[in-house]
Amino acid sequence: MKHLKPLLLIASALSLAACSDAEIAERDTQAAFSLTIAHINDTHSSFDPVASSFTANEMRVYNEFGGHPRILEQANYYRAQAEAENQSMLFLHGGDAWQGSAYFKLNEGRMNADILSRMQLDAMALGNHEFDLTNAHLNAFLSAVNFPMLAANVDASVDEDLKEQNNLLPYVVFAFDGFQKQRLTPGEPLPEAQHLVAVFGLALDDMPNIAPNTGDLVFANMVETAQSMVDEFHAMGIDKVVALTHIGKAIDVEIANQVNGIDVIVGGHSHTLLGDFSDLGMGYAGTYAEWVINPDGESATCVVQAGEYAQAIGRVEIDFTNDGRVLDCVGGNTLLSNDRFYRDSERTEDSYLGSEASAEVLDFVAVNPRIAVVEEEASMRAHIDSVYRPAMESAYGAELGMVPAQITHVRTPTETYPTGSEVAPLVALGQFQWAATEAVANVAGLQVDFALVGAGGVRQSLAQGLLREGDITLELLPFANFISIVPLTGAQITQLLQDTVAATVPSGAHAGKFPYGGNMRYRFDETQPGVTGEIVSVEINRGSLLEPEWHAVKADATYNVAMNSYNATGNDGWDVLYEAQKESSDRVDLAYVDGELTAFAVDRIERTSDGRLQVIYETDALQCDIAGVACNTDAMAVVEFLRDIYVPLRGAVLPLPYGVVEWNLEE
């Protein structure tokens, strides 16, 4: 793939906003081929809209964003526009469609297959959460959908469930004649009179460390695979190359820095809403359609990603010259809002803005390219409501208490939320309080000191209104992980915090590993902005919830730390846990067996030849797939804490009265 010189590319991107209509028209006439890509990622079964808010004319407005029917409506609009202009178009999904809501817990992959097949997607990347069940479930999903899943660096040839699956592909090639497109079958002669676009997939090459249920799949090096794919396409005579990835924005940039010839990377995994949304009170996570210079210094790659939870859709347009050079790669993300606005998160009739104030918000939205009011696609909304919603609503169970105002979850501290998530510390405190009860301590044989939870294990904010058990077990903590109690030294705890927090500092880094504490707090100084920093203090609360007494962690002392089993084994960058347990462990795992809380003593953790982390028990192994075994103690701990301790103490479900993360930016 040939490109303009990088300086010309950068100049083109920087000068786009100043281009006149005539200049843009002249550019378009130079383009022998123009491709529009609409894209979404990390939708996580968000079939319904997400309660949210934004700033309009310096006023905070509470609304709803997205949901699959609204995404479909906007994608249909893009399609109709492309057809009217005879414009070539693809609609791509950057992976992680699975998990995230009660819909998924109840229907597993079946509803995802149904709804996504109605979206007219052209391809989807293989995300880590597509492994949250079993490869048999993934195989059923792949057999049911009407679009291919792409992962060029995944070998399924020896996996019992996926080895015969013909819809998990390394790449697909599309032949375009204007709006008309044809997906070519492998081995089919390439048409000479049409424009050819190759789309290949990349999955995380350390997937076994992030998603333990990968079976016998083999994951190859991402950089080597990507360059091999590009070289293969060029040898075939295809000079327009798209990488559809689920590896995170920061790694997308690394790939572009190390691989020649990828024109566009359409990404996922880091949940990055690229573009400047600061005028909406939502910050700036990086440039949309950022150009990254390739190692040859002659070519460059355009990188895009579209946020999370089906709240936004991205659209990028790539213009090519007749000899395969890229003229432009421009576009943006658009948040898709409903049209009913409130002045607070309670969203009562009293807080409705009214027609005049709503009209002002609508006027603001109408001239802002980063947000749009979009109706839900009616047939999909009706299908969800009639087929899936009744069972979902009946599954929520007993009431836990009222949430007076939304409790917000963000993965890392932001300008709006300087101490980070309001939800994750509540989850961690609930798991600590449960593990610290006399009943649990007697079974475990360990008295817990505090708890840690990774931001990625907490799936959403807590909306204003009545909170039920199912909001916790089906949506907030849906992974059915068991609680582990792991003895660690103060030095190991500090190193764990250092490794996991510092890894999230670079822009676009995967932030699911970011830690929050229950009954503990820490301070992090970002010593090199956007690069790294250091943990400067870690403290444990030896007082009460409402009257904390903070004491510094001692490096040589041992503390019993509660956390979910996923992180306790060292997954998702919590490598200190693996190192601490690879020789021997005093860890205890807790699950219910026939209704009785049972402790399973861990002997050590082993790393298998393919990189997976495996727990070795002293005697009987904890097997969550056996009848009578309930492993979701991570969620049940929070349910019992809210029901029996927190709501009676505070009268409602409220954020903690103190922050557990202090993040300082050194100038």
UniProtKB/TrEMBL annotation:
Keywords: Hydrolase, Nucleotide-binding, Signal. It comes from Aliidiomarina shirensis. GO terms for biological process: nucleotide catabolic process. One of its GO terms (molecular function) is 5'-nucleotidase activity. It holds the Pfam family Metallophos. SUPFAM superfamilies: 5'-nucleotidase (syn. UDP-sugar hydrolase), C-terminal domain (SSF55816), Metallo-dependent phosphatases (SSF56300). Residues 1-17 form the signal peptide. Belongs to the 5'-nucleotidase family. InterPro entries: 5'-Nucleotdase_C, 5'-Nucleotdase_C_sf, 5_nucleotidase/apyrase, Calcineurin-like_PHP, Metallo-depent_PP-like. One of its GO terms (cellular component) is outer membrane-bounded periplasmic space. This is Bifunctional metallophosphatase/5'-nucleotidase. Residues 36-272 form the Calcineurin-like phosphoesterase domain. The lineage of its organism: Bacteria, Pseudomonadati, Pseudomonadota, Gammaproteobacteria, Alteromonadales. Residues 436-577 form the 5'-Nucleotidase C-terminal domain.
